[in-house]
Design a protein that fits this description.
Number of helices: 7
Radius of gyration: 15 Å
Largest sheet: 8 strands, mixed
CATH class: Alpha Beta
Helix content: 25-40%
CATH architecture: Alpha-Beta Complex
Distance between the termini: 25 Å
Strand order of the largest sheet: 7-1-2-6-3-5-4-8
Number of domains: 1
Structural class: alpha/beta
CATH topology: DHBP synthase
Order of helices and strands: HEEHEHHEHEHEHEE
Shape: globular
Length: 191
């Protein structure tokens, strides 16, 4: 059983914000595994994450937000019924594929898809990071392609020693599996 989550100190949040705004890449605990994150509108930072993971740009990456308000710009262009379907899953460990009708998310984040994968997290560290940054973050599992996602900060260091700009302290949430991915248009579960 996981220990209760300790809130991040102001100093940790300040360092994470400074790193993100400066184009850096961070590692942080999420609901089930450690994640790599950056500012999704910083192409160099997104490129670094894709390079670290050895992930093709065509696959795209997930965005994680602290609240529905943070991703309201993606929801507003959608029909009300699709907005309501997505919001029924949040906050929580469900990632929804939202059509990016106005192409507001960079291609390098969206990949070859016309939708963007978005999760409004209920994990306290993820929420604090997104609130402090003031925008949703890229969130992709912290591992090179073909390796198991990191479940400890030790594994994060082993995978990416000296290649990350900040490692945010904290505990994983209670989930054993990464978030489910639901296509809100078709209703299909993709993961």
């Amino acid at each position: 059983m996981n220990k209760p989550q300790q809130p991040l100190s102001d100093w940790h949040l300040h360092c994470a914000r400074r790193t993100l705004l400066g184009g850096g890449v961070i590692a942080y605990p999420t609901e089930a595994v450690w994640g790599l994150g950056c500012d999704p509108w910083d192409p160099d930072a997104v490129d670094r994450i894709l390079e670290l993971k050895q992930r093709p740009v065509e696959k795209g990456v997930i965005l994680v937000a602290a609240s529905v308000d943070q991703i309201r710009f993606l929801l507003d262009p959608l029909p009300k019924e699709l907005q309501q379907k997505a919001m029924a899953y949040w906050p929580g460990p469900v990632t929804c594929l939202l059509p990016d009708i106005l192409k507001q998310i960079p291609d390098q984040v969206r990949g070859r898809h016309s939708s963007i994968a978005v999760r409004v997290s209920d994990h306290p560290v993820v929420r604090a990071l997104c609130e402090t940054a003031g925008f949703p973050l890229v969130s992709t599992s912290c591992n090179p392609a073909g390796r198991q996602p990191a479940r400890t900060s030790w594994q994060v260091r082993r995978y990416f020693e000296g290649q990350l700009d900040w490692l945010v302290p904290g505990q994983l949430g209670g989930n054993r599996q990464p978030s489910r991915i639901i296509d809100i248009v078709s209703g299909k579960q993709l993961r």
